Amino acid sequence: MLNASLKDLSSGLAQKKISSLELTKLFLGRIRALNDKLNAFITVDEEKSLAQARAADGRIAKRASQPLTGIPVAHKDIFVARDWLTTCGSKILSNFVGPYDAHVIARFNDAGAVILGKTNMDEFAMGSSSESSFYGPVKNAWSTDCVPGGSSGGSAAAVAARMAPAATGTDTGGSIRQPAALSGVSGLKPTYGLVSRYGMIAFASSLDQGGPLAKSAEDLALLLNAMAGFDPRDSTSVEREAEDYARDLNKPLAGLRVGVPKEHFGEGLSADVGKAVEAALAKLEKLGARRVPVDLPNSGLSVPAYYVIAPAEASSNLSRFDGVRYGYRAKNYRDLGDMYRKTRAEGFGAEVRRRILIGTYVLSHGYYDAYYLKAQKIRRLIAQDFVEAFERCDVVIGPTSPTVAFRIGAKTSDPVQMYLNDIYTIPANLAGLPAASIPCGFGVGGLPVGLHIVGNYFSEAKILNVAHQYQRETDWHTREPAGLKQ
Amino acid sequence: MNWEIVIGLETHAQLSTASKMFSGGSTAFGAAPNTQANAVDIALPGVLPVANKGAVERAIRFGLAIGATINRRSVFARKNYFYPDLPKGYQISQFELPIVQGGEISIVTKEGEKKIRLTRAHLEEDAGKSLHEGLGQLSQGMSGIDLNRAGTPLLEIVSEPDMRSAEEAVAYAKTLHSLVRWIGICDGNMQEGSFRCDANVSVRRPGAPLGTRTETKNVNSFRFLERAIEFEIKRQIEILEDGGKIVQETRLYDPDRDETRSMRTKEDAQDYRDFPDPDLLPLHVSKEWLESVRKTLPELPQAKRDRYRNEYGLSSYDANLLTETLEKAEYFEATHKLLKRPSPKTVANWVNGELSALLNERGVSFLQILIEQKALANLLDRIHDGTISTNAAKEILHGMARGEGTPDEIIEKRGLRQLSDSGAIEKIVDDILARNAKQVEDYRAGKDKAFNSLVGQVMKATQGKANPAQVNEILKRRLAR
User: Fold this and answer.
1) Chain B interface includes A66 (CB < 8 A)
2) Chain A partners of B47 at a C-beta cutoff of 8 Å?
3) Which CATH architecture has domain B422-480?
4) Which of A302, A447, B202, B423 is packed most tightly, with the most Cβ within 10 A?
5) Residue A283 forms part of a structural domain
6) In DSSP terms, which residues pair with A188 in a beta bridge?
7) Domain C-terminal end among A351, A376, A401
């Protein structure tokens, strides 16, 4: 049951082979057993989850269910949920109980899904290792000495360890795909604007996008069906017709043009990851796809451009956490300025403070043109690279991350090394393109490797088609961490 | 040597939308603190702004009314600073690309008409209010925050430094104030802060480059604006004539002391780190939208004034007074249309004179129709057809205001009908002439005063009901014999 696909769970529920209450209890039990070890969840509230499960069973009994009715889903603690503690992994929100539901939460609630808990994450989604959380680091389900990736590390670890059948995440520079890769699960960052950001605590507004993490591409499609959709409360939400992201899953790949950017296979890519990705490309060719070399000449500039734009937006987005209206406030202060300084110095962790400082600096008078404007120009060049690439191919495929999961603490003292983790994933955020990571083998230490599939705007169905066809022919995505066997 | 005064104004007009600039929160004034601040207004984690279409439309109306360029693409940006009444830690405004650019407003002063150029007008949101006193015993030494006003839509209207006296600045502010109400984008309530001005003032020797300016903030009455500018001019000239230098700074006008005081100098100016707001897409105004807004604009004050002069032959003075507000102008036009025999000058005199005085006395505006246009037209018709005298008409107007009935009813009730029967008047005139041989003699000897005395006696004998024009005419005829 813990390994079942969402489709199977859904039909099991509909046929009353299992109730939502039983299913929810099963996963809550799994969380109870494993969370001390992995620290994947910040908040679990069994009573609330079970109440939702009972309501879902009522709905199923009335034959008023939808595909996700009764299915427990874990949510990244960046989504505000009514009556749930919503911390964003930060001390500054350690006492913040959501007074409303984020659009994504509301969509899952409307679909009858059960909130299984709120997952741990890098503080304000700033990180690639889930180590910067105020609630302590998340551990990799495959090796608890290693990081699960980040920032949606809690969600990735929860799915990998079968503590949740599915989870939500957010991706600003790779925060869904990189932890999916390092934790051996599937993850999708949709096209910017497809999933409403309302109620998703902002890190970098022009890059943030919510998306699902699950065990397979097929599951991702079901989850995206629930998450995607226009929301008038988010001005960047795109108004377009609803689509079924599962519709093309079974299309054969014959004639698919797979763009392979040489820039993503050069220096910095570890051999084990390169080998697994090459094998995956060969498998796709066997399935009828054709390899097309493509150039992403500006992709080397993506990390520096990202580390100007994202901190700039973050420095402003995080200004509201000032100790005045909600959240943590320092105990002793002399005056208003002192209250602000102490609250923010005590409430934010080191990485968040670093990025606020970088962002404040690049927006400052006299530096704006040299940093922020220049970075925006690079951003347009990177988007243009993809426009040209997609004239020649249907998807761009490469490694999700240069290495497999690294040891906890290995990169915390060298932020630039940490930032380079996202070198392959950041371009999709800068361009606003959809992209997925799916398991494609194992590297050094038996740790999972992720395959990165980038598609053109709103081509989620195509990406999922490629991923699903690959997953039909491989079993990497069905493997589970040995140490945590049920 | 004389000084030239240079003034530019920045005006914040609160737009008359029901909801806020970027949220559905209500903009109603005077509610209990923090009862009109929703999740977006108080900047809860995760909330997002959505631009208010009605506010954008009002900005477009303003731009069209002043003949400005409406930028087809404008950009909302964030102005970052920390203050407890600024919930997000930034204000959303427009910097590099405002929605309205250029345009001009024509003002009238003693020196005549003058055009004041506008630099720009942009959309932004207001902050909340900090309350430092009156919070009660338990809150001694604490400050309160009221976020009801947070997010209220504002149009910041920036003029070029085209004004050369406090009088011109006040005339500009008044014209602008009248215009924003005229086109229905702002209620203009200055006590509630819906219309407030910042004055940029500098002085220079004629022909010299612009002097260093000071900005006097948040002046919320025309009188204070005049006082603040006059004070600032005098202060700056005194400093310069003593060989000193003007410091570029922001000042505050204190009406109790009638002076401006320094708030902060340019040296402690903050770096607001403006950048385009990534939560809001650039604002696009389509040609269709622009044209549909243009169609809903009323005839503008300047056009009306010109028409009143050309079409109705009214004086500039009358035309200006009639176009103080749209309601007044519309009242004038409606009344005029209802007259049996058109006489724009008569209607203008009554609307600008007796009726305005009456409304003023009662503290009501032309918006609340105290006297229906039909009733006033009826009253003026009765003067014209000789039924009543002008004096009686004034009495009737006040009677109507008290709800005593229609002009005809009041005429009958009070017996105000004029004596217009010439036979009857002739008899009375003859009688008076017979009894006042002395005055008749004086008149014939060239003493005009004697005539007035005779008129007075005839009017007295008729209890004021005789038609004075008729009395004059008959008297003259009889005396000429």
Assistant:
1) no
2) 198-199
3) Orthogonal Bundle (1.10)
4) A302
5) no
6) A436
7) A376
User: Which residue of B46, B80, B279 is in closest CB contact with A235?
Assistant: B279
Name the percent of chain B lying above pLDDT 90. Answer: 70
The answer to whether B131 contacts chain A (CB < 8 Å) is: no
Q: What pLDDT score was predicted for residue B134?
A: 73
Partner residue facing A316 (CB), from B45, B49, B80: B80
CA distance B410 to B378: 12
Task: Judge if ipTM > 0.90.
Answer: yes
Confidence (pLDDT) at B142: 82
> In 3D, which of B35, B23, B69 has the Cα closest to residue B285?
B69
Q: Specify if A41 maps to a domain.
A: yes
Considering its fold, how many domains does chain A have in total? 2
Backbone phi, psi, residue B380, to 5°:
-65, -35
The pLDDT assigned to A401 comes to 97
User: Do the Cβ atoms of A320 and B43 come within 8 Å?
Assistant: yes
Cα B25 from Cα B14, distance rounded (Å): 15
Mutate to test the interface with A, among B34, B44, B143, B281 (most CBs of A within 10 A): B44
pTM, to two decimals: 0.91
B317 Cβ under 8 Å from any chain A Cβ: no
Domains of chain B: which residue ranges? 4-292, 298-414, 422-480
Which domain covers residue A454, as residue numbers?
Answer: 6-256+392-484
- For residue B419, pLDDT over 80 is answered with no
CATH number at A414 reads: 3.90.1300.10
Using pLDDT thresholds of 50, 70 and 90, give the confidence band for residue A174: very high
- Tell me what pLDDT residue A486 has: 59
> How would DSSP label each residue in A383-410?
HHHHHHHTTT-SEEEEESSSSS--BTTS
List alpha helices for A184-325, DSSP H: 217-227, 271-286, 302-317
Across the range A90-114, mean pLDDT stands at 98
